[in-house]
Amino acid sequence: MKMLIGGQKTDSSDGRTIDVINPANGKFLDTIPMATEEDVQRAVDNAKKGQKEWTAIPLMEREKIIQRFVRLLEEHKKEIIAVCTRECGKHVGTTIFEYNQTASVFTGYMESAKRLDGQLLVPGSEPGHDGRTASDMIMVTHEPLGTVVAIVPFNAPMLLYSYKVAPALAAGNAVIVKPPTDNPLTDIMITELLLEAGVPGNALQIVTGSGSKVGDWLVKNPGVDAVSMTGSTQVGIGIAEIMAKRLAPCTLELGGNDAFIVMPDTDIDKAAASACGARKGNSGQICISSKRFIVHNSVIEEFTEKLVKLVREIEVGYDDNVEEMMEKCLGNTDRTNTKGEFIGSLISERAAKEVEAQVAHTISQGAKLLCGGQRTGAFYMPTVLAGVTKDMDVAKDLEIFGPVWPVIGFDTVEEAIEIANGSRYGLSGCVMTDDWKLGMRVAREVQTGGMVVNGSSVYRNQMQPFGGQKMSGMGNEGLTTLEEMTKIKNIVLKGFLG
Ligand code: NAP
């Protein structure tokens, strides 16, 4: 596939390409251009014009464009789901879950855009410089940021594209997308459909190539007014440092090491099932997957035994009969029961090797391997680690992005909260207890952007202002946070009121 620069399908100016392969079976899927700095500059220059072209279209017409896009998305549904499934090496059911949310993120943000109505301040309420403000009309308005770079991670390429591109467009910005290099095809296809629906080619562009080069060129480009990035904390910090030099805003949705706290009063069967599901989805490659299982010592043995039984039952594999499986899965919007649905590979062999090394490191620090622990190519077997103590890296800042359940014991509520807060991350978390008051206490004291009582941390509703505390991010995303894609301007009509 090609980049989309100025509405044209574009090769890299030096003709270089990158292969995209299915990580589960190693099959070649396509190539993408490896953009040059010149290509990036062209996209940034176009975006300046594109932003004006886009905002010159009245909002109700822009809404019609998005509605047309939603229809096109539905027409191309099976094609998109198949490509996404193959480039991620996952089960088609997981892709369908992502697909099913994509349209409503776009339409939801268009609805939010209609409510970006600013404010009229009460005249004469405060003296101001001349003390004569009673006849001034003071308007507080929202303006687009300008050109927003949307940097998308590999783990949910369709949904996380939507959470970046939809708000940026809805608020009247031009957008340049930098998709993940391992699986960029879905994002290119969706961009093509948005252009076909009528988004001007200068207002939405996609440039491909490695983050450390293409992403960095974009972030450093002074023509870029804001960055919205989801990915690792390490890369996020680098972006924030660059943006700080020109005091330009960035929204960062970063890594996490979410605590799953099990209190002794809870139903242990339910807790084990929830813990298994909380880590199994997308082969553990979800930012808000529960990643540290902090269990009261009085029930840790029972919990671990039940968890291991469930984890051993998880099927790992891949079936390239994606179209056939899709027919069976379409219509199943209930993702609470994914029994019988295998988990696919990780995004690459490199990613699986990293998980392998992280597990080996944790074992070298004293953890005990109860099941799993093997890697084949890009596949990593679901793994439970017992005997994890609060001083081990995995109990603190080591985020494992794969199907691994480290189990850590505690004796008191204070200790559980201390372990949960002993991480530099603060994305999400959860506590399983029948005592709602205790649940509320833990929810309030754990330092995260979100907490779930009596359910896993894998919880995201489109309306929520989703985001992390501490090193898990900066800013929020959700249908209620469109202001983040705007800047405020005060306009005063001096003496207008007579
Ligand atoms: P990553 O390595 O940080 O990559 C994320 C994106 O940033 C990719 O498009 C990548 O491009 C690009 N990138 C890499 N280096 C860059 C640079 N120097 N400048 C600009 N862009 C650059 O993260 P990942 O491995 O894809 O994703 C996993 C991480 O994301 C995990 O830590 C996970 O917890 C986190 N995550 C957080 C959320 C959330 O909402 N908080 C959601 C999902 C994932 P390339 O692909 O070309 O390297």
Automatic annotation (TrEMBL):
Residues 12-491 form the Aldehyde dehydrogenase domain. Keywords: Oxidoreductase. It comes from Wansuia hejianensis. GO terms for molecular function: succinate-semialdehyde dehydrogenase (NAD+) activity. One of its GO terms (biological process) is gamma-aminobutyric acid catabolic process. InterPro entries: Ald_DH/histidinol_DH, Ald_DH_C, Ald_DH_CS_GLU, Ald_DH_N, Aldehyde_DH_dom, Aldehyde_DH_Superfamily. The keyword Oxidoreductase applies. Belongs to the aldehyde dehydrogenase family. The active site is at residue 253. This is Aldehyde dehydrogenase. It holds the Pfam family Aldedh. It comes from the Bacteria.
